[in-house]
Amino acid sequence: MRNTFYLVSLGCPKNLVDTEVMAAILEGEGFAMTADPREAAVIIVNTCAFILPAKEESIDEIIRLGRHKDPRDGSCRCLVVTGCLPQRYGGVLENALPEVDLFLGVGEIEKIGLHVKKSMTTRGNAGKVFVDSPPFLMRARHPRHVLTPPWTAYLKIAEGCSNRCSYCVIPDIRGPFRSRDRNDILREGERLVSLGVKELILIAQDVTAYGEDLEERTRLEDLLIDLSALAGLRWLRLLYTYPTKVTKRLLEVMADGEKICRYIDMPIQHVDDHILKTMNRRGGREEIVRTIETARAVVEDVALRTSVIVGLPGETRKRFEKLLAFIEEARFDHLGVFAYSREEGSKAGEKRPRVSEREKDQRRRLIMERQAAISFEINRNLIGTTQEVLVEGKSDLKGYPYVGRLRRQAPDIDGVTYLRGEGLQPGLFTSCRIVAADTYDLFAEATGTPGA
User: Fold this and answer.
1) Tell me: the pLDDT tens digits for 147-199?
2) Nearest CA to 58 among 74, 47, 68?
3) Are residues 19 and 125 both part of a single domain?
4) Closest listed residue to residue 160, CA positions, set 105, 205, 209, 104
5) What share of the chain is helix, strand, coil (3-state, %, to 5)?
6) What is the pLDDT of residue 323?
7) Distance CA 326, CA 320 (A)
8) Structure confidence by residue, pLDDT tens digits, 258-307
9) Are 7 and 42 within 8 A, CB to CB?
10) 304 and 377 share a domain?
11) C-alpha 81: how far from its chain's center?
12) CB-based burial of residue 147 (10 Å sphere; 0-12 exposed, 13-18 middle, 19+ buried)?
């Protein structure tokens, strides 16, 4: 148990990639991963600090896992907190969470092995907080212990953000937007596919900003074309696009690319022009409508996902109702809604009048109710269609022994497809016919021969 570690990754897939890099670095330093925190000499919590619920989840998890430092409940000798929470709050956490041995910011990822070894040998006599500017940028040379199913992997193409939305503190935590070199991304993509990955999911704080900071002015569509050429890759998916940067050229590449999923994750956040201006978002309602119309015209059967925020200071009932009406009009395939979280240091946090927590929750529930009806109708219209499905595992649902995803379903954030048929195994693809639907999930029977 001396050199075992257990880790938890909280928050978004971008954070998960950081966790995978840290896991691989520790393994290279002679540590072995365990699935049981009671057996771990080192416990790592890679935290999220995007909004209040994320911070609360992070702290709850730190406290829960800190109990394994008690010899009666575990073998932990070094409790490590990494990521956005220590990057944002630094030394403040040292007094609040005395059970933690190390607080490492987002710039310390490459040094995780050195920090842990030093902490374990000095027994608390060395520094505990290491937070600096966030220079770390994922490279192909960095090892990764991929923690997703072996057929799917996230590919981080950039780090940081320069959009400066008024409600968001990510630029302060992660630094300005920094694109990876195109060839470096391709090398990592090649390596992942050689390891058996069939679905690559491109991620960044804003994937549509990719290349804007590079001298060669590479664009996202160029990167998509290059990655699509990887032999053995089946699906290529985009997450986190910015509405005003979803160009017609990008849509045309998506429409022409056999491997590129016709799926666009495009957080609009709101549609009222006053609220969008308060948010410091580029573009207004007209630009959002135009982007949606163009996407549907250029990319046949495109699945659109979005997210919105309710309860920002200044969101009157009338402005909220504009958003609610737009949700019904736009008919997104998938939608997430967040109640505004007031973050210290953000410009929106200084604005008034503020919306009560009760009203924010009511508005969030109203949108989800409307979206549920829309999702159900869209899913019902898929009954009878033939789709390609990626089988992901066994199901406990009677009559449908397997579960998988269609091209229109991203992992963890969208619904799933329950499946029945012969010869199905996790990691295989097959054609299927949709036979039933509920609000978020689909039900299908396999119609083809499963294969990789």
Assistant:
1) 999 999 999 999 999 999 999 999 999 999 999 999 999 999 999 999 999 99
2) 47
3) yes
4) 205
5) 35, 20, 40
6) 98
7) 10
8) 999 999 999 999 999 999 999 999 999 999 999 999 999 999 999 999 99
9) no
10) yes
11) 20
12) middle
Answer yes or no: do 159 and 47 share one domain.
Answer: no
Q: In what helix (H) or strand (E) does residue 63 lie, and over which residues does it extend?
A: helix 52-66
* Residue-number span of the structural domain to which 340 is assigned: 268-282+294-381
Beta strand 429-437 with 442-446 is antiparallel
The token pair that represents 53 in the structure block: 């619920």
Q: Please report, as a single letter, which amino acid is at residue 441.
A: D
DSSP β-bridge partners for residue 156: 203
What amino acid is encoded at 70 in this protein? D
pLDDT at 125: 55
For residue 27, which of 114, 145, 108, 141 has the smallest C-alpha distance?
A: 145
* First-last CA distance in the chain: 38
Confidence of residue 2 (pLDDT cuts 50, 70, 90): low
Burial of 164-199, coded b for 16+ CB within 10 Å and e otherwise, reads ebbbbbbbebbbebbbbebebbbebbbebbeeebbb
pLDDT single digits (tens) 375-418: 999 999 999 999 999 999 999 999 999 999 999 999 999 999 99
**Do 330 and 418 sit in the same domain of this protein?**
no
Q: What is the pTM of this model?
A: 0.95
Q: What distance in Å separates the CA atoms of residue 124 and residue 141, rounded to the nearest whole number?
A: 32
* Percent over 90 (pLDDT), the chain: 87
Last residue of a domain, one of 362, 381, 400: 381
- Which residues lie below 8 Å from residue 293, measured CB to CB, with a gap of 6+? none
CA 144 to chain centre: 17
Name residue, tokens 């849509």.
251
Q: What is the pLDDT of residue 346?
A: 85
> Tell me, what CATH number does 156's domain have?
3.30.750.210
- The answer to whether 219 and 187 are in contact (CB under 8 A) is no
Number of domains observed in the structure of the chain: 4
pLDDT in tens, 53-104: 899 999 999 999 999 998 888 899 999 999 999 999 988 898 899 999 999 9
Same domain, 273 and 329: yes
